[in-house]
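hi! just following up on the protien thing from before. the input was this:
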Amino acid sequence: MSDEKTQSPLFLLAVSMAYLIEADTRTTFEEKAQMAATLGKHVSSGELSQVELQAVVSDAFDYAEGKNVDAFLTELTNSLTPGQKTAIVINLYDVMLVDGSVAVGEKTVMQKFVNSMGLGRETMRVIREIIMIKNDTTIFTDRSHPLNEPEFILDVQMFSAEDSKTGPQLTDPLAGNKERWSGSREG
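and the predicted 3d structure came back as:
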């Protein structure tokens, strides 16, 4: 990854999503829509223009098409923070599960990302469970769905090193890093 644009963490997220979306022979509407929704927030917030967003997505797919995923992962893991690595894996699970099916190619690419990001087995289990629940909308149409049972409880506890006593709250301020596709970076 030679230039500043391709080292942007937002671009690396887009490329990661492109690898997963292109991992099988069919790209679904839901996968593309999930990518657009994830990255489109940056247009709504004014960080990117619509033209810049289209360039990010187009460049991400071109990049993924032209570079082996293993080579990308070798470079990727050295250029991201632990939080960015976790966010990429979460977003990839979301893209993979959004259409209700998981193709063999998607599993393969997903496993490569999981292996390279250094996340623990328990963390991965929690991520998978939450994203699976989020994307399983049959919970709203099937009264006999196991998650509709009164006994169902989701009890997840994940804390960062700084949150040893209390976990983050919904009202906590979110850390943010405004990036421009134009190539400028803060950090």
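The CA atoms of residues 68 and 147 lie 39 Å apart.
DSSP finds eight helices and no strands in the chain.
cheers
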